[in-house]
From TrEMBL:
<feature type="domain" description="STAS">
    <location>
        <begin position="18"/>
        <end position="80"/>
    </location>
</feature>
<dbReference type="Pfam" id="PF01740">
    <property type="entry name" value="STAS"/>
</dbReference>
<dbReference type="InterPro" id="IPR002645">
    <property type="entry name" value="STAS_dom"/>
</dbReference>
<protein>
    <recommendedName>
        <fullName>STAS domain-containing protein</fullName>
    </recommendedName>
</protein>
<dbReference type="InterPro" id="IPR036513">
    <property type="entry name" value="STAS_dom_sf"/>
</dbReference>
Length: 125
């Protein structure tokens, strides 16, 4: 698994600060799911909205549900928003565990960015 963090875009005169993006590729399983947490929670602590982009994930085990369902809830406790970008692999896991697609899950980064800009914190309510 590889985790890359793109820092948030700085605020400018005509736009607000953009979210940080944490891109994950490869396989998420019990041996590495907490590695994502350790990269994301410090961003929450620094009061950054975060997009967790799982579009390049090729496998996700049940421990990966924490990334999709748990971390956005944690974001709320910090007073920030969190959106997750998924793919068919991640959506299949949600279906298998009979979990409907949460409102903070999106098909692409653009939709996630737009939702954070307009809906922000209450995405994880």
């Amino acid at each position: 698994m590889q985790v890359d963090v793109e820092p948030p875009m700085p605020a400018g005169p005509a736009f607000a600060r953009g979210p940080a993006v944490v891109s994950v590729s490869g396989e998420i399983d019990a041996s590495n799911a907490k590695d994502i947490d350790s990269r994301v929670e410090p961003l929450f602590a620094r009061r950054h909205d975060v997009i967790i982009d799982l579009a390049a994930v090729s496998f996700i085990g049940s421990c990966g549900l924490w990334v999709v369902v748990g971390l956005p809830q944690v974001a709320r406790t910090y007073g920030v928003g969190c959106a997750v970008v998924t793919n068919d692999t991640v959506d299949r896991l949600l279906h298998v565990v009979n979990h409907c697609r949460p409102p903070w899950v999106f098909d692409d980064r653009s939709s996630a960015t737009d939702a954070l800009a307009t809906e922000g914190l209450w995405l994880a309510s």
